[in-house]
Amino acid sequence: MMTTGPNLQVPQRATPVRRGGSGAFVSVLLLTVIALQAWSLMRGSAKESVVAADTSAVSAAAARALALKLEDRNLPVAAVDAWERHLAGASLGDREEAAIRYRTGKLLQQGLRYQDAVAAYFRAEQLLGADGGDLSRQITIRVRECLAKLGQYSDLSRETAARAEVSDGDTSAQGRQVVAEIGDEKIRIADFDRMLTEQVEQMIAMQGGRSDEEAEQLRRQAHARFADPQARAEQLQQFVASRVLADEARAQGLENSPAFRTQLVDFADRMLASRLLLDEIGKRGTVTPQDVERFYAASLDRYADPTSVSIAHILCATEDSAREVIASARSGGDFADLAGEHSRDESTKKEGGRVAHSVTAGRPEVPGVGEHPAAHAAIMAAESGSVLVEPFESDRGWHVIKVIDRRERVQETFDEVRERVERDAQAARRGEATEQYLRELLETRGVKFYPQAFVAGDTDTPSTDE
Q: Are residues 395 and 264 in the same domain?
């Protein structure tokens, strides 16, 4: 018995299909089925779209909730990532997005990512357009803060000027202005500011051991010097001249010359030595608040206004004439009148002999007389209003001296001079640390010095023949 497989042929009708009734019904039924299938597909597609939209909305809402929670836990950078996911899933208007971009900028600034913060602020500014209102003003303040933290004070100055001058809101217009050309290369203001900032940072790096406050002060001072357009133009010329000279030297192959190679090695040695010393002293040369207080207690004279005495004098040609003037003054004569009559010092006689500068405790110099320890001691010991009983000789003649007024020593309190004491203590500690480190290093390397060898005839030092 032969087995047959399944019949996969479309069955053939035995009789032709008649037109009319039943045929029309089948056609209508077929169309109905197709329509139902199409509706079912459309319904399924729509349902999927709704689900996707709902999922996106839930995801954006969850990201927002996470961002707020991270902010509350003081995790600013992680909060920024959550806000970015919220922005990716939420449907927001420009002003709503700008507000969040500004918020992420503040978080990035809080996380010390100042460059990223500036980018977020500028994106918020773009979204706000020309009518940003108070938020635009806040962005301006925040951008300036970030540029200052980055040490980019030249860029900060340009940013400030640009916002004041550019009416269309394009604060980058000034930075794109060309200030120099080297062949086909164009140097923009932004390029110059970058070079200037790099130079300042290198200068600060060469002064290791500086506190953050000291480094910040150095940055401000350095950039302040280049606020003047003339100073900036001169610095630009130096930058360009250095570049051109270096390029020409390379073109002539000077970097391969033996002389340059020797100089480069010597320079590298000095730079390495300097770098090592700066790094090491940066670690060793630190001070604690207790160190600063002890330094103040041990250096009270440094933080005091010393006793000072204002004086008048009459310059006489001889000792005898000086003693005659002293006698007249001590017997009731008016010192100012005597100065006008007898003094040979044209700069003070019309002022009654009064000397412009005071005599200060601890300094042997007597203004109007010169360095004169004996006169200085007598002045500091005398009472206000008294005429000294002895004249004092200098290379100008003989001086009759009257003490006009005394200002006693005034000690500045620690709180009044705290910042100055901190700087002085830090400098003293760096000096001690440098000396100590060098001594340790020289001892470790077995270094010995024989300065007596410079004295002619010395035979007690070793020679290379031994």
A: no
Sign for the pseudo-dihedral over CA of 53, 59, 60, 62: positive
Q: Are residues 395 and 420 in the same domain?
A: no
Total domains in the fold of the chain: 2
Domain presence at residue 192: no
Return the residue matching tokens 């010169």.
Answer: 370
Higher pLDDT, 59 or 298: 298
| Model pLDDT, residue 14 | 39
Burial, 315: exposed, middle or buried (Cβ in 10 Å; 0-12, 13-18, 19+)? Answer: buried
Q: What is the pLDDT of residues 20-56, one digit of tens each?
A: 444 444 343 444 444 444 444 444 444 444 334 444 5
Strands (DSSP E) found in 243-350? 304-305, 308-316
pLDDT at 165: 56
Task: Output the average pLDDT for the chain.
Answer: 81
Which residues span the domain enclosing 345? Answer: 307-408
Structure confidence at residue 296 (pLDDT): 95
Give the model's confidence band at 6: pLDDT under 50 very low, under 70 low, under 90 confident, else very high: very low
Nearby residues of 319 by Cβ (< 8 Å), 6 or more positions away: 391, 393, 398
The answer to whether the beta carbons of residues 155 and 147 sit under 8 Å apart is yes
How confident is the model over 84-135, as pLDDT tens digits? 999 998 889 898 999 999 999 989 988 888 889 989 998 998 898 877 788 8
Give the contacts of 277 (CB within 8 A, at least 6 positions apart): 208, 434, 437
Q: What are phi and psi of 461, to 5 degrees?
A: -100, 150
CATH number at residue 364: 3.10.50.40
Closest alpha carbon to 434 in 279, 269, 295: 279
Q: How far is CA 451 from the centre of its chain?
A: 44
355 falls within a domain = yes
- Between vectors from CA 257 to CA 251 and to CA 262, what angle results, nearest 5°? 130
Give the rounded distance of the alpha carbon of 5 from its chain centre: 91
Please tell me the number of Cα atoms within 13 Å of 85 on its side-chain side: 17
**Whether residue 279 is found in the same domain as residue 370:** no
* In a domain? residue 263: yes
Strand (E) or helix (H) holding 202: helix 189-205
Q: 455 in a domain, yes or no?
A: no
Residue 9 pLDDT: 36
Q: What is the H or E stretch that residue 401 is in?
A: strand 397-407
C-alpha 343 chain-centroid distance: 56
Distance, in Å, from the CA atom of 342 to the CA atom of 318, rounded to the nearest integer, reads 11
